[in-house]
Amino acid sequence: MDLSVVVPTLNGRDRLAACLDALAANAPDAEVIVVNGPSADGTTGMVRDRDDVDVLVEISDRTVNVARNAGIEVATGDAVALVDYDNRIEPGWRDAVADGLDAAPVVSGPVTPIPPSEADADRAADAAVDDPSEPERNRIAGRDVTYFEGGNVAFRPEALRDLDGFDEYLRVGGARDAAHRLARMDREVAWRPEMAARKELPTPTAADGGRSAHEWGWKYRGLAYRLLKNYGVRPTVLFRTGSHAVGDAVGAARDVVRGESTPSRWAATGRDVIVGLTRGASDGIVARRRDRSPAKNPNGVSTRADRAVAKYDRRGEAGRDEDAAAGDAVDAAGATDAE
Question: Among 184, 228, 275, 281, which is 20 to 30 Å from 218 by CA?
């Protein structure tokens, strides 16, 4: 199996370097494609100085789904994996990918948080409460959906083609949206615990766990969009969005009571959530009408050709070197014959 690995990144040079080191150690035969958003931390120079990255694609968008699609566009393997820049694959990952793709068109595995300090060990334990031997599953509108880790997943090319990649409308939730669409197409998602990766946890930057009110708004905008786009207006969809919002509102209110947040922040977050739900629902209904195919992706790989603003492709350089070497061999043979 020829494996391509797409690594989207944005302002994560040091963590990206650790990710690439792990790929070089545990999947040395893979074609590695780094897709760099408009980073300002020297990522471009660091990647170009490495000889274990085959392609560097520079994009101007800051959205991970655009980066994923830009990498998918240039991948040449008969399997394509997505690995987040702050994930480090473990030994056995490469074999687990091959084993999973023998059984299903998509395979994913667990991602275990790495706490940046002992003070964050409890937070890491909370983030890893799920059983790593089983993926998250849900039944929505009579359809069984198996979710996958967007930063630790591999696809057969035909599965990505039928999905048309990821929906670039979404800033967050692109992997969950793709899981809904795979379920619609009756595509199985395999789970392999051995396809393991570790992720360094970010440092919290806000009292609500590091997420700003604007990010809460985008969370609910994406939630409403993907559910309305994939399932239309139905009671189960309205119930799910409402229950998510009520649960988060209660949790935020508890933070206020404990003194970990303020009433004004709670109100601002609530306003952003309501605006996000309204806009996401409207845009989701429009998207459902725009693409009535099983892919349900009006913003996929095939919809644009201007993602990359620059591309550094060592595969082409290797090809030119091979052509030059072949030419030299022909010239040498000709000279021998002439003698």
Answer: 184
